[in-house]
Amino acid sequence: MLDRVSVSHDDKVAATDQPLLIADGLSKRYGRIDACRGVSFELYPGEVLAIVGESGSGKSTLLQMLSAQLAPSAGRVSYRMRDGVLRDLAALGEAERRLLLRTDWGFVHQDPAQGLRMAVSAGANVGERLMAIGWNHYGRIRDTASDWLQRVEIDTSRIDDAPRTYSGGMRQRLQIARNLVTGPRLVFMDEPTGGLDVSVQARLLDLVRSLVTELGLAAIVVTHDLAVARLLSHRILVMKSGRVIETGLTDQVLDDPREPYTQLLVSSILPA
Amino acid sequence: MIEASYNFAYLDEQTKRMIRRAILKAIAIPGYQVPFASREMPMPYGWGTGGVQVTASILGPDDTLKVIDQGSDDTTNAISIRKFFAKTAGVATTTSTPAASVIQTRHRIPETTLHEGQVLVYQVPIPEPLRFLEPRETETRRMHALAEYGLMHVKLYEDIAKFGHIATSYAYPVKVAGRYVMDPSPTPKFDNPKMNDCAALQLFGAGREKRIYAIPPYTQVVSLDFEDHPFTRYRQNAPCALCGAEDSYLDEIVTDDRGGRMFVCSDTDYCEGRRAQGHTGTESAPMEAADA
Ligand SMILES: Nc1ncnc2c1ncn2[C@@H]1O[C@H](COP(=O)(O)OP(=O)(O)OP(=O)(O)O)[C@@H](O)[C@H]1O
Ligand SMILES: [Mg+2]
Ligand SMILES: [Zn+2]
After folding, report:
1. Cα angle at A115 between A72 and B167, to 5 degrees?
2. b/e per residue, A257-270, with b = 16+ CB within 10 A?
3. What share of chain A has pLDDT > 90, as a percent?
4. Which residues of B are catalytic?
5. What's CA B23's distance to the chain center, in Å?
6. Residue B259's pLDDT band (boundaries 50, 70, 90)?
7. For chain A, first and last CA: distance in Å?
8. What is the mean pLDDT of chain A?
9. Beta-sheet pairing, A218-222 with A48-53
10. Mutational pocket test of ligand 1: of A28, A29, A30, the residue with most ligand atoms within 8 Å of the beta carbon
11. What is the CA radius of gyration of chain B?
12. What value of ipTM does the predicted structure carry?
């Protein structure tokens, strides 16, 4: 079981010419609301994609479909598994899907209570994914957890404290460690800096940016904060009323938006 | 004598058939929690209504019933359950482990090795071993279905991180037949090894939670642990003060108000049996003299 997740970083940068994830005509309907309409794109290994748009534009809905937590009303998501085979997520069995979610993928929630076990220690929060894939040596689990706490700049003397006792920024960093411990290739983040103080946000963004680069991670980051998108992402999707209305390289789109809606977004959030 | 106003063993035949079906299913899927329509019994839930319903459903007129509570045949709880079945089913009762065909228990497995043909019925308060860390029933069910048991080790990890060793000493989780993780009810972990490869059928009934589960005879039962923190059995490091036993689970008994205490077998039948065979402990002589 373990060999499935102990992939070296060399393997990860290998097939960058083939997409890691393909969204094809994704739509989601809630009664009369079209939360998401015909979204298509490709994500390559090591690429960071930002999804931006105003509240209610369908960002979280899209992210949930991409991460196989919500079934699309139409369209499909394909993902290239570690063996190189592209699979339709809807065709995965539940056991396979859940294994994917806790090994090859990560999911960082805006609300840390959704992504962490608030009542168990930080060490166990990080170790859980390892235990879930069969690690059975306490000492090794603890050492690995401790390494990861260091990498996300949490003092290892806090390893036995529950995240309840952590600050907001520490909780987010702990979520990141918990997700990255199995060496995922793709991380989903839904407003990872939402609700944090500006200075805490900056530190978190720096950390995410360096980890993503260092590990060659692909990431899909939902944010309504264009500064976050600019700092983290290579490419950007601008959503409005469930549709992608503009897409391109992040700097290009933000410096020279074509759509009037994007121009509005850019001017209101990044006043020149 | 059976009192006329009751059906045999109190429950009506239809209810007993329903419970037997749940039991058969539980035996077919060792360690899996089978839901059943738990009935009201004429006693409070804390008294083991789950175990009582299982016992009521499997008892026949030729059975001999033993009831123990924390190893003792003589607590109020054990006595009233024994009386209940003597009255409603007219079955023979005993305190002898080898003589019983059905043993209902709360919190202990007898010290005397069980034999083929016996049934051990456990009273279970909380059947779900994952409940402590995952309160959502939908989620724990899915975890069992997919054999996702990482969470169980999270609990053991927490123990070691806090206490330096696995401090869980009751309701210590086990894996049954290499598949389902199961809560053995609040028995001390000392008893866990007795569940493995046991000649008797083991049935578990949780009344309030409406679940029945089982370990068929001669089934592998393994206590969860870590490679570097293996499962260990625990007993007080002392011989029984009454019978000198060095291999039995001990209760600590306060003997006076000046901090005096002694350790005695929690299994009263086992202890009495040994004393009858002439085994003695540090405190046994005066007690026997007083009895005589
Ligand atoms: N479970 C649901 N049931 C019904 N409608 C829903 C549900 N989830 C989302 N919607 C609707 O779908 C649309 C898109 O919602 P979504 O949560 O994806 O937006 P968002 O872009 O993430 O917004 P925010 O920035 O506020 O988080 C909204 O109109 C929302 O009300
Ligand atoms: Mg959202
Ligand atoms: Zn004794």
Report:
1. 135
2. beeebbeebbeeee
3. 87
4. 31, 240, 243, 265, 271
5. 16
6. confident
7. 53
8. 91
9. parallel
10. A30
11. 20
12. 0.87
DSSP state of B226: B
- The alpha carbon of residue A153 and the mean position of all alpha carbons in its chain are separated, in whole angstroms, by 19
With CA atoms as reference, the chain A residue closest to B146 would be: A95
Element (H, E) at B268: helix B268-276
The pLDDT tens digits of the residues spanning A30-71 come to: 999 999 999 999 999 999 999 999 899 999 999 999 999 999
8 Å CB contact between A30 and A73: no
Angstrom distance (rounded) from CA A193 to CA A110: 7
For β-strands B174-176 and B180-182, DSSP reports them as antiparallel
C-alpha–C-alpha distance, residues A46 and A48, integer Å: 7
Model pTM score: 0.88
**Quick one: which of A59, A18, A54 has its CA closest to A265?**
A54
**Residues B141-175: pLDDT tens digits?**
999 999 999 999 999 999 999 999 999 999 999 99
Q: Which two tokens stand for residue B25?
A: 């299913």
DSSP-derived letter for residue A164 is G
The yes-or-no verdict on residue B288 having pLDDT over 50 is no
> How many angstroms does the Cα of residue B135 sit away from the middle of ligand 1?
27
